[in-house]
């Protein structure tokens, strides 16, 4: 008689490849939200892993007595109460590295679109205005001569820095501690970096420590030629302060791929002429999202088989193997 397969919960909206592999490799149960009331006591007692596509609270973690691993789809895992999971000796994993290049590529594209108004120029052509009215107006902003400041020099931040370094641009960065493996200019305070650069790229995780950290003071320090690019978490930007700074030209422009209340983008942002907006697509290619999905399931499979997690989050790295 074959051994009983581990049960894995598909919580929230999960990637189709995650669902396909989980249903093939484990006993799977699926719910639309992390609500213990949606499952029977028997199902809750059997669940050993979660493939997460939603908020995972401490209360929900405690409702699953035999939970061992939460595999988060994405690099950011602020939707998971990881501190509580760690106290329960529940492994939490994320999906770094496999999306770093895609996000870095998109970030450079978003920066160029914001500075050179490329989406607007294409719309101008498609509307027949080039033929009717003549050439698209010269853009006031350019990548030439800019100084880049990167807030968050992790895997993705470093990939962005390498790309922009190839454009011949000076790179500054702000992190809690200085890196020893780069020659970029480090600033121990974000406001000092904002004062020293004219292009601020934000790629830090969400959570209480970074909530609205890019505020009016930071934007004022960036200055009237300043450009803000946000590709990390929308919660890191004080959106009302940004809208005000864009409206009165305290900064020149912004390019945003993430927002505080997705998918709800403030109408005031959409009405501004000096902002380029994307619907959180930085990693949204088929190949990259499939790689992320595979990493989610590979983490589940490894941990539930008694092996080390492939990509544990830092708070759970000390667990390193499934408790016996």
Give structural notes:
The protein has 324 residues and is α/β, with parallel strands linked by helices. The protein has two domains: 7-96 and 287-316, 3-Layer(aba) Sandwich (Rossmann fold), CATH 3.40.50.720; 100-277, Rossmann fold, CATH 3.40.50. The protein is built from 13 helices and twelve strands. It has helices at 16-25, 41-46, 58-62, 82-87, 100-116, 118-126, 129-133, 155-165, 190-196, 216-222, 239-247, 267-271, 286-304; strands at 7-12, 27-31, 47-53, 69-72, 91-93, 148-151, 171-174, 185-186, 199-202, 227-230, 253-256, 275-277. A seven-stranded parallel β-sheet has the order 8-7-6-9-10-11-12, with helices on both faces. α1 (16-25) runs parallel beside α13, α5 crosses α8 and α9 (190-196) packs parallel to α10. It starts with 6 loop residues before the first strand and ends in a 20-residue tail after the last helix.
Strands, count: 12
Q: Give the helix tally.
A: 13
- CATH fold description of the largest domain: Rossmann fold
CATH class of the largest domain: Alpha Beta
Largest sheet: 7 strands, parallel
- Series of secondary-structure elements, N-terminal to C-terminal: EHEHEHEHEHHHEHEEHEHEHEHEH
Query: How much is the radius of gyration in Å?
Result: 22 Å
Q: How far apart, in Å, are the first and last alpha carbons?
A: 24 Å
Question: How would you classify the helix and strand content by structural class?
Answer: alpha/beta
Strand arrangement, major sheet = 8-7-6-9-10-11-12
What is the second-level CATH architecture of the largest domain?
A: 3-Layer(aba) Sandwich
- Principal-axis shape equals elongated
Helix-residue proportion: 25-40%
- Mean pLDDT over the full residue set: 96
Count of domain modules: 2
Q: CATH homologous superfamily of the largest domain - what is it?
A: NAD(P)-binding Rossmann-like Domain
């Amino acid at each position: 008689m074959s051994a009983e397969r581990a049960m894995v919960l598909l919580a929230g909206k999960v990637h189709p490849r995650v669902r396909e592999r989980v249903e093939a490799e484990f006993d799977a149960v699926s719910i639309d939200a992390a609500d213990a009331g949606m499952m029977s006591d028997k199902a809750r007692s059997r669940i050993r892993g979660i493939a997460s596509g939603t908020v995972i609270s401490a209360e929900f973690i405690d409702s699953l007595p035999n939970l061992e691993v939460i595999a988060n789809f994405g690099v950011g895992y602020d939707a998971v109460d990881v501190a509580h999971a760690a106290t329960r000796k529940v492994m939490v994993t994320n999906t770094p590295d496999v999306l770093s290049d895609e996000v870095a590529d998109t970030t450079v594209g978003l920066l160029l679109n914001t500075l050179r108004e490329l989406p607007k120029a294409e719309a101008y052509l498609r509307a027949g205005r080039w033929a009717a009215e003549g050439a698209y107006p010269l853009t006031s902003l350019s990548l030439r001569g800019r100084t880049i400041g990167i807030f968050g020099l992790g895997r993705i931040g470093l990939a962005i820095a390498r790309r922009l370094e190839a454009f011949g641009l000076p790179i500054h960065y702000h992190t809690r501690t200085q890196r020893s493996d780069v020659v970029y200019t480090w600033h121990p305070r974000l406001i000092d970096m904002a004062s020293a650069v004219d292009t601020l790229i934000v790629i830090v995780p969400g959570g209480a420590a970074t909530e609205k950290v890019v505020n009016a003071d930071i934007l004022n320090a960036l200055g009237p030629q300043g450009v803000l690019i946000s590709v990390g978490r929308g919660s890191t930007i004080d959106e009302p302060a940004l809208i005000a700074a864009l409206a009165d030209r305290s900064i020149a422009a912004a390019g945003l791929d993430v927002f505080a209340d997705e998918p709800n983008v403030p109408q005031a942002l959409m009405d501004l002429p000096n902002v380029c907006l994307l619907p959180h697509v930085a990693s949204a290619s088929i190949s990259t999202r499939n790689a992320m999905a595979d990493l989610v399931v590979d983490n589940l499979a490894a941990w539930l088989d008694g092996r080390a997690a492939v990509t544990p989050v830092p708070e759970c790295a000390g667990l390193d193997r499934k408790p016996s």
